[in-house]
Amino acid sequence: MDTIRIVINRDFQIGKIDERLYGSFVEHMGRVVYTGIYEKDHPTADENGFRRDVADLAKRMGVRVVRYPGGNFVSNYNWMDGIGPRENRPTKRDLAWKSIETNEVGIDEFMKWATTYDFEPIMAVNMGTKGIEEAVALLEYCNSDVGSYYSNLREKYGHREPYRIKTWCLGNEMDGEWQLGHKTAHEYGRLAHEIGKAMKLVDPSIELVVCGSSMSRNATFGDWEREVLKNTYDEADYISLHQYYDGQDEGTPSFLARSLDMERYIDLVCGIADLEKKKRGSNKTLNICMDEWGVWSTPDYEVQKWVDEHPWQIAPPLGEQIYSMEDSLLFASMLMVLLKKCNRVKIGCQSLLANISACIMTEKGGDAWLQPVYYPFEMIANHAKGMVLDARYCGKTYATDAFEEVPLVDSVVTFSETDKELAVFLVNRSAEAETVEVDTKDFDVNQLIESRGLYSLDIKQNNAKDHHAVEPMDFDNAQFRQGKLYVDLKPFSFQMIRLGLQ
Questions:
Q1: Measured between alpha carbons, how far apart are the two ends of the chain, in Å?
Q2: Are residues 393 and 345 part of one domain?
Q3: Which domain holds residue 242?
Q4: Backbone region of residue 395 per phi and psi (left: phi > 0; alpha: psi in -120 to 50; beta: other values)
Q5: What CATH number is given to the structural domain containing 431?
Q6: C-alpha dihedral, 133 to 135 to 137 to 143, nearest 10°
Q7: Is residue 378 part of a domain?
Q8: What is the pTM of this model?
Q9: Rounded to whole angstroms, how far apart are CA atoms 360 and 2?
Q10: Helix (DSSP H) and strand (DSSP E) numbers for the chain
Q11: What angle do CA 84, 88, 93 make, to 5 degrees?
Q12: The total number of structural domains that make up the chain
């Protein structure tokens, strides 16, 4: 068996990990909010009606930031419907998902949840059916000291102290024809410029995220970014990218290679942003906010068909995808891409937190259970700390229709000076066992702390019936000798190895 080599050096580093890479996303869609994170009659409900079991699982998962309230939902959302006494809040039609929104949970309730469980909020404003006035009013409501109309309104409703939300998304997927209030790149760019300018007059300390493309295969990709940044570079701090992958029907090798498209996608957008920086002679480097990403195993047309056949329900069970061991491998590689690009990608939001394309599934009135994709996120978010090393891969590759050279084993290595630890993350894209050698001679390794991962004899296995069918296990397949780590990877597996340093 040919050994795959990974070479690392203490001095060769990609960048420092921003913990906001370990984020998630809560949208008023299906059962994400109602019977997902919130269920006031649930046995575990806290005093605000939020499910403690779900919040505890999200904390264990390592979630640091959460984007809210959408998503497509935000493009037809009036934030004022969700404030004040609940008995006075209107019940309205959500046109994005053809659902009924009760507005039982709004800005203040979300902020109670985020504050209680220590999640940093990322707030999105409606740029579909709303505009400058509404965005500025929402910012004043959330961030301004008492003394003006909207901040006084916040105090009236029981929240004297400002929320001080730092990061704000200017709309959602405005490049998409499906988006309510869809705009051309020029229309969006001009409006985002004016809204961003106004919002920073209210609170100069905030960071703004402008909409990039909603997927790498959009026909407008590239042209959209160029036009948007031409109009918004001065106001923007980040440009957002969204990316979901399906394609299991193409076969496992091609499916697991899709993370290379994500790498290329990020590189291209960074290049466009840097070109605009050069044109302007600017000192500011615009970074990436990958604020929606994940595996989308159910075709969009099936989700839309279900919505059309079951319209105008409260919290309908739409888009509740069931993930397999195979899905968890691509999911792991996608999160590893964010680490590999951490010099430019500063925020990442796995989509979504509960029930829809989710790591955490819930039963109304019952238990919460975990999908296989939960576990790579948990291991990476809790143990990939400090710096990402510029690891070099030497070994076997394979070809797909889209890529000539796909590493048979995907890898990321992180180094924490604080914890005195190296963490090695590996995805075996092969149907065969593979031996990996990691050259760690530049580090004084003194112990193998943990060797843990995810593996199933059946890569199509999921946790829908047996909630514990695919779970992490300890592996006795790693050895450290003479300055090198040797790992005998199982076929189609994800593995984490933690090494202690002198």
A1: 32
A2: no
A3: 17-366
A4: left
A5: 2.60.40.1180
A6: -150
A7: no
A8: 0.96
A9: 38
A10: 11, 27
A11: 100
A12: 2
**480 found inside a domain:** yes
For residues 356 and 399, state if they share a domain.
Answer: no
Please report the sign of the dihedral spanned by the C-alpha atoms of residue 145, residue 149, residue 155, residue 158.
negative
CA 108/CA 157 separation, integer angstroms: 9
Do 310 and 427 fall within a single domain?
Answer: no
Q: Which helix (H) or strand (E) holds 461?
A: none
Distance separating alpha carbons of residues 171 and 132, to the nearest angstrom: 12
Q: Is the pLDDT of residue 469 over 70?
A: yes
Whether 169 is in a domain gets the answer yes
Nearest to 79 by CA among 187, 153, 179: 153
Catalytic residue among 27, 109, 134, 173: 173
Residues 356 and 414 in one domain: no
How far is it, in rounded angstroms, from Cα 462 to Cα 358?
A: 13
Which tokens belong to 265? 């996608």
Q: Taking residues 16-37, what's their average pLDDT?
A: 98
Catalytic residue chosen out of the listed positions 292, 320, 421, 434: 292
Instruction: Answer yes or no: do 403 and 482 share one domain.
Output: yes
Task: Mark whether 394 and 336 lie in a shared domain.
Answer: no
Whether 150 and 83 have beta carbons less than 8 Å apart is answered as no
Tell me, yes or no, if 173 is annotated catalytic: yes
The type of residue at 421 is: E
Q: Cβ neighbours of residue 359 under 8 Å, at least 6 residues apart?
A: 24, 61, 350, 353, 370, 371, 373, 374, 377
In a domain, 380, yes or no: no
Concerning whether 417 is annotated as a catalytic residue, the answer is no
Domain boundary among 336, 366, 396: 366
Tell me the pLDDT tens digit for each residue of 348-399.
999 999 999 999 999 999 999 999 999 999 999 999 999 999 999 999 999 9
Structural tokens at position 240: 């957002």
